[in-house]
Amino acid sequence: MLARPAVAARTAVFVQTRNMATLKEIQTRLKSITNISKITASMKMIASTKTTRAQRAMKVARAYGKVSNDFVKQAEVEKAAEAKELLITVSSDKGLCGGIHSSLARQSRKYLAQNPDAPVVVLGDKAKVQLQRAYPNNIKYSFSQLGSTIPTFDETSAITSTVLNDKEIV
After folding, report:
1. Residue 127 in 3-state DSSP?
2. 139-143 and 120-123: which strand pairing?
């Protein structure tokens, strides 16, 4: 007797061949892409609102900055011979504007390459992280969590007092 070996029959109901996605997987991916686009749109709206608020605040502050610059130009203040130099780098604590932080850190490193003993005061975590790699000993003070709200006089005067009361820096 010639008998054929028993072969299990294959079913091709939901078998995936050659990495082809099934209809259900494609639908799931499309749904997740739609959800991601909704999240992105809401993030854009929030960023737009924050940018508008910051631009309004900047427009108001620009008048004060212009008056300060005019005052300094008219005062004709010259640097004293024995004056110490202090580098103050201002950045943000978080955000997606890496180019700005990299540029700030690059300019700060360039200044510190010319003045290797200059003390540094850093406002914001992004610049601090980048400057700590190359000049960890130069950073005397670091302040963070300043940009979450509009800066107040109390915050700025506390930072100024801390820096001015340090006899090593001033």
Report:
1. helix
2. parallel
pTM of structure: 0.62
Task: Give SS3 for 108.
Answer: helix
Q: Are 147 and 92 in contact (CB under 8 A)?
A: yes
Q: 167: which DSSP letter? A: T
Residue type, 147: G
Q: Give the C-alpha separation, 113 to 16, whole Å.
A: 60
Question: The tokens 């008998």 sit on which residue?
Answer: 3
* Residue appearing with tokens 């103050």: 88
Radius of gyration of the chain measured on its C-alpha atoms:
29
The answer to whether the beta carbons of residues 127 and 105 sit under 8 Å apart is: yes
- Tell me the pLDDT tens digit for each residue of 88-106: 998 888 877 778 888 999 9
